[in-house]
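Q: Now give one record:
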Amino acid sequence: MVYSTAKLTDKYQITIPREVRRRLGLRAGDVIYLALEGEKIVLRGARGGWTEATRGLGADLWKEEGGAEAIERERDSWE
């Protein structure tokens, strides 16, 4: 496991350390995925573009808020 530090600027930006960029294969302009896991921020390189990177984002919220039922009701209304 690689441990690195990054300083948060006054514009709330960080520079991803070289070793982390290298291990994730990140290049300038790449999309990254930030996930909150409890009190941790997990950074993942997003491959396959924006659509692939955001697939499933917010899925837990949909489940909690009855989203699946709302989608089914909407689909049923199409028939």
User: Anything to note?
Assistant: The first strand starts at residue 32 and ends at 37.
